[in-house]
From TrEMBL:
PANTHER family: HTH-TYPE TRANSCRIPTIONAL REPRESSOR PURR-RELATED (PTHR30146:SF148), LACI-RELATED TRANSCRIPTIONAL REPRESSOR (PTHR30146). Keywords: DNA-binding, Repressor, Transcription, Transcription regulation. This is DNA-binding LacI/PurR family transcriptional regulator. The keyword Transcription applies. It comes from the Bacteria.
Length: 339
């Protein structure tokens, strides 16, 4: 006779007991939903709901493309976070990151402590120390001495003493160029920020590399990476023949440029297509909605905490880079000239 499926509450309790028995001082992968459903004689829907509850409790963590893991038993009381002085308080990318790391840490009973650069005068800063935003080598050297183990969500290609988790900005630029090229566009403008910002520089490199490969002309306009910078770029574009398409290294530049072009009678995407990056809330609110790339802050935080748990459990200062892929968000700001 077929057994009736376990109710959700009983399934959660049995999974919780099994998790606690399997918990070690490092991440432990649990079986697939299908295997758990068979083991507990439950539906996959019930298993999925139970896993979601245990993730919310902080007992499990889901890593995209890798599976679901038991959070290590090693007690991590506090995460120390330091922001670069260059980061603006209203920066949506870093704001989303701070919200997500606060939420996920709370579920695992971990406190967040913000560290101010003035504290570098102290004998030491407890680790792990998470760095947000661009810092120069002198700052990084002082932090390394003060804290020991550093984790960064910024890419530092020349540093092997920092564990880095970041999105592939070069690939974002290349994907933007390919998308516009495949849609039939053949003259491009790139709205870039200063090269001192790694994300802008790498997105520019990826974009230009693809265009060079396909012998596609590109005009590069360098501006501040904000709305006003985009507006100024639009003024420059209006003094000559418009390109078929524009890639802006962030959404604020893209939105400012769109506004400037529209105010001067240009239509998007009929006259020019445009792609941004970061998927800020405004990207889905403006008209036409902006095609862009989403840098999933929750995914970034999950990978970061996984790396911290792993290195803490191993008592390791090993070198590591985790490169994440941004999701392409197709919207109405890009026309297909092949149709």
């Amino acid at each position: 006779m077929e057994k009736s499926p376990l109710i959700k509450e009983r399934l959660i309790e049995q999974l919780r007991e099994q998790i606690q028995s399997l918990q070690k001082d490092q991440l432990v992968k649990i079986p697939s939903e299908r295997d758990l459903a068979e083991n507990f004689d439950a539906s996959r829907v019930s298993v999925r709901a139970a896993i979601k509850t245990l993730v919310q409790e902080g007992l499990l963590v889901q890593l995209r493309g890798k599976g679901t893991y038991i959070v290590p038993a090693v007690l991590l009381d506090t995460l120390y976070v330091m922001c670069s002085p260059d980061i603006k308080a209203n920066d949506p990318y870093y704001t989303n990151f701070l919200v997500e790391i606060t939420n996920l840490s709370a579920k695992q009973a971990i406190k967040i402590s913000m560290v101010h650069p003035d504290q570098l005068t102290a004998a030491s800063i407890p680790s792990p120390l998470i760095l947000i935003g661009q810092m120069d080598d002198a700052q990084l050297d002082r932090l390394k001495l003060a804290s020991g183990q550093l984790f960064s969500i910024q890419r530092y290609a020349h540093r092997e003493d920092i564990i880095q988790i970041y999105f592939d900005d070069y690939r974002i630029g290349s994907k933007a160029a390919k998308t516009l090229y495949d849609a039939g566009h053949r003259s491009f403008t790139l709205l870039a920020g200063p090269d001192k910002y790694d994300s802008s520089r790498l997105r520019k490199q990826g974009f230009l590399s693809f265009c060079q490969q396909y012998d596609t002309p590109v005009q590069v306009i360098t501006e501040k990476m904000n709305w006003e910078g985009g507006r100024r770029a639009a003024d420059q574009l209006l003094t000559a023949v418009l390109p078929n398409a524009i890639f802006a290294v962030n959404d604020w530049m893209a939105a400012g440029c769109m506004q400037g072009l529209r105010e001067n009678g240009r239509s998007i995407p009929a006259d020019v297509s445009i792609i941004g990056c970061d998927d800020i809330p405004l990207a889905a609110q403006i008209s036409p909605r902006l095609t862009t790339f989403s840098l999933d802050a929750k995914h970034l935080v999950e990978e970061l905490l996984s790396a911290i748990h792993h290195h803490r459990a191993q008592a390791s200062d090993a070198k590591e880079q985790i490169i994440l892929s941004a999701a392409f968000i197709s919207r109405e700001s890009v026309s297909n000239m092949n149709h």
